[in-house]
Amino acid sequence: MFFNDHKESKDGAASAMRIENPKVGSKTVPGKWKIFFDASLLRRGNANPSELYDLATDPREEKNRLGDESLKPLVKRLVSIALLHRNACGHRFVPLVPKKRISFDWTKPIPSPSPIVMNLSTKGGKASIDPDGVGIPGLGSPKVDSGQGVTLRFQQDVLVESVGLKAGNDGTCGGSVRMGKRAPLAIYCTDKDNDAKDQQGIISDLGILKAGETLVLEADPHFGVESPGSWKLQSLVVRPLAQE
Q1: Where does residue 65 fall: left (phi above 0), alpha (psi -120 to 50 degrees), or beta otherwise?
Q2: What percent of the chain has pLDDT over 90?
Q3: What are the residue ranges spanned by the domains of the chain?
Q4: Where are the extended beta strands (E) located within the chain?
Q5: Which residue, 65, 102, 140, 189, is the most exposed by fewest CB within 10 angstroms?
Q6: Can you give the pLDDT at residue 32?
Q7: Burial of 88 (0-12, 13-18, 19+ CB in 10 A)
Q8: From the candidate CATH numbers 3.30.565, 2.40.70, 2.60.40, 2.60.120, the one assigned to the domain spanning 102-240
């Protein structure tokens, strides 16, 4: 669920929920569904849906499916899920994650051997590491620029707590981040107005990354409608899940 994430709300408290292939009764409704609620969900715990999109067929959110009669059971199910999360103070999707955190900080020498097996690969050039983090030189700057990206992969399930990026005074936080086969998210600079004015920020609470799935960070926006980026990958914090 995304709280206070959409400027369309007059009081700034709109929320959205995204879920893939939800079950309605005994049937699965295929799709990457995204439903919007007005401010009453956050303010008073009442779920009034306003928009519904299937990102699998409509990634630009151009066709509002909320009025589709055949989707009424789906809407009812999504409303009940939203109310559960809002009013029941959350509940567990996966087994409890161990307290142990593993941090990768590319602004410092990475310990060897690594406490967890991770593969880092790049798109658009060879990775270069310096005190500002991981970049890909070759397109006019030492950063990760348009046409370039970084892919991370683990050999076991992990909870991705955060990814740290730094654009610096001459860069821009932008592009997209994608976990596995899930819909991509735009990269925003979370604290571009901090005192340092260096456009560094944390992308947090990305969720579970299954063994072999990819966490892809690209400087290009996935749908071409957000701002491109020019940044370096500085840090990554994960919690390993118990291996079966």
Answers
A1: alpha
A2: 48
A3: 2-87, 102-240
A4: 2-3, 15-20, 23-24, 27-28, 32-37, 49-54, 102-105, 118-123, 128-130, 133-135, 149-154, 158-166, 176-179, 185-186, 200-209, 214-218, 232-240
A5: 140
A6: 94
A7: exposed
A8: 2.60.120
